[in-house]
Amino acid sequence: MSLLDIENLKVYFATRAGIVRAVDGVDLNVGIGEVLGLAGESGSGKTTLGYALMRVLPRNAKLDGRIIFEGRDLLSFSATEFNRVRGREIAMVFQGSMNSLNPVVRVEDQVAEPLILHGGLSEDEAKKRARELLAEVGVSEDKAKSYPHELSGGLKQRVAIAMAISTRPKLLIADEPTTALDVVTQAQILRLISELRDRFGLSVIMISHDLSLLSEVCDRLAIMYAGKIVEVGSKVEVVNTPEHPYTQALLASIPSVERVGVDSPSIPGEPPDPINPPSGCRFMPRCAYARSECKEFNGYLYELSSTHRAACVLVGGKPIERVPR
To answer: Most buried one in 75, 175, 249, 305, CB count within 10 A?
Structure first.
């Protein structure tokens, strides 16, 4: 069953240089208890999509489309109505835990705040529950009274996760939850998120540029490029049989022990200007398989199986020989 359905979502920013099309017609869904990985280069619109779901965008942002959460269109909610959803039913672990934590407030007080605002607990009850939550995510009681700068990067990330799950949300958005952490701590954080999913039945959207990391913990993968979803499917389908040339290039660029001493292939060129994106397929200027029909392609996601879709003329219902230009 679907918990979240995103339909033709657009997030545009009005700037002096023009309209920035950060998210441009995204269709996506998340099932109950599912972990969906959202991957793509920096600037592809992944974080903006997460912010749109939380409605924490700047004033120059314009939202359009539908965000259906448990049958309710969240974009039709007033700010007051959405305040009862944000933090209670949908929570987010923001990228860079040090930046999302208040540097002058002890961590137990920060974890207690959502419990007071959304749970109606007294300050003493909330602090007691906060210490229990911190213990659940691996932060010892003696660290609960610390300030953020007194904790390691891994502990700060655990505090941010404790804040996010304090109200037992139904959907957790984790934006680059392992950025700037060593590989051991990365594995611990990923294991923690998986355990929380299993324990509380959480649905999770995990945002990262690292496909190898996402493939470890996610049930499905969605690949985003220049504001659009270009491929979505089960992790087995996307990793083992990628159909979009961008997905193939991302996977090829992952370092491998089988290529020790050999440079990993890279994707030529730069992502397109979100103010003046190319017509047709936005990956066309960097694609090794580009052809004339790509200029007219509207980004439609062709169905490859009941769970696998890709936005490429190469898979559009008829086989086309892949000949690099």
So the answer is: 175
What's the pTM value of the predicted model, to 2 decimals?
Answer: 0.90
Collect all residues with Cβ–Cβ distance below 8 Å to 40 and sequence separation of at least 6.
46, 209, 223, 224, 225, 250
Q: Count of CB atoms within 10 A of residue 29's CB? A: 16
Q: What is the 3-state secondary structure (H, E, C) of 55-111?
A: CCCCCCEEEEEEEEECCEEHHHCCHHHHHCCECCCEEEECCCHHHHCCCCCCHHHHH
For the record, the structure tokens of 279 come out as 């017509």
DSSP β-bridge partners for residue 302: 310
| Contact predicate 204/174, CB 8 Å | yes
The answer for residues whose C-beta is within 8 angstroms of residue 287's C-beta and 6 or more apart is: 245, 246, 281, 294
Burial class (CB in 10 A: 0-12, 13-18, 19+), 155: buried
Tens digits of residue pLDDT in 292-314: 889 989 888 999 998 999 999 88
Give the CA count within 13 Å in the CB-facing half-sphere of 33: 6
Q: Supply the DSSP string of 270-317, one letter for each residue.
A: -PPPSSSPPSS-TTGGG-TT--GGGGG-----EESSSS-EE--GGGSS
75: CB partners within 8 A, 6+ apart: 63, 65, 66, 67
Q: Treating both helix axes as pointing N-terminal to C-terminal, what angle do 153-165 and 183-200 enclose, rounded to 10 degrees?
A: 10
C-beta neighbour count of 160 within 10 angstroms: 27
242-253 tens-digit pLDDT: 999 999 999 988
